[in-house]
Amino acid sequence: MKTTGMIHRLAPLVAGLGLLLGACTKTPPEALGTLEHDRITLPAAAAERIVAVQVREGEQVQAGQLLLRLDPAHTRAELAAAEAQLRQQHEVLAELEAGPRFENIDQARANLAAAQAQAREARAYYARLLPLKSQSYVAAADLDRARAAAGNADGQAAAAGAALAALVHGSRPQQIAQAQAAAAAAAAQVRAQTVLLDKLSVVAPRGGWVDSIPYKLGDQAPVGSPLAILLAGDTPYARIYVPEQQRAGVHVGDAVDVYVAGRATPYAGKVRMLRSEPAFTPYYALIGEDAARLSYLAEIALGADADALPAGLPVRVEFAGAAK
């Protein structure tokens, strides 16, 4: 009986000790994710055949290194046509700026003189016929034809005078502006074709590793299709999904421990990005009841000691500061 009473008196003490030990050994909040590198996709600038592949999948490349080359024949022809169009527009502009030739002006003066002479002759002939009408020495139809010829000759003389004036005044400012705009458009087309020709030689914009080359030698990929996918950056980062109930305790700049699959020792990391808009937790980052909860995408920067880690490995991140 004494033993039973003692057990009843010690039960609350044992329960309190258990709670204290549980609080001391409470694990910090954690989140799951994967190691990632920045993925760079290099699309096809033109639907041309692949004529050279200089790298292999998994190969490390440097910035500016040639990866593959597309057939440049068609683009070079388009560039040559654009350059010819540009030269033509430059010549048209130069002609308008120079104005008419002196020979053309002299020809217009001669045409005006001839038209004026014909007009004087036609008017004189009409003037000679006009007095004869009252004496019925000339038919009314002949007089009408003479009057029409005189008017037509005057019109021809006026047209020749206007043509001479147009040549003397030269090109209008609007014509020169239009020629300048056409030359600028042709120059832009040349630049566009030059850029396109350069893009047919696909180079690495950053150093990294070749993750994938979807098309092979001889293939003709559609415009915009990925010709090569690179994993850029020397050090991977951890992409994790912070559960909803832990979001308030995690901030950009917090130090965390990153446990990588296959490595017993954690890597030191720091939260460099934390999304403010939530999303549902992906299947590979589920933790217990978190499957029905929202999560927040975050990125964890790692140090130089993680350079050799490959992308795609599962990681577990512990937020030591959030457990306090």
TrEMBL record:
Organism for this UniProt entry: Rhodanobacter glycinis
PROSITE patterns documented for this protein? PROKAR_LIPOPROTEIN
**Which terms are listed as keywords in the entry?**
Coiled coil
Location within or outside the cell: Cell envelope
Q: Which Pfam families match?
A: BSH_RND
Q: Name the GO cellular-component terms.
A: cell envelope
Q: Which domain of life is it from?
A: Bacteria
Main location group: other
Q: Does the keyword Coiled coil apply?
A: yes
This protein's record includes keyword GTP-binding? no
* Official protein name in the record: HlyD family efflux transporter periplasmic adaptor subunit
The UniProt entry's sequence similarity note says: Belongs to the membrane fusion protein (MFP) (TC 8.A.1) family.
Q: Which residues form a coiled coil?
A: 79-125
Multidrug resistance protein MdtA-like barrel-sandwich hybrid domain residues = 49-230
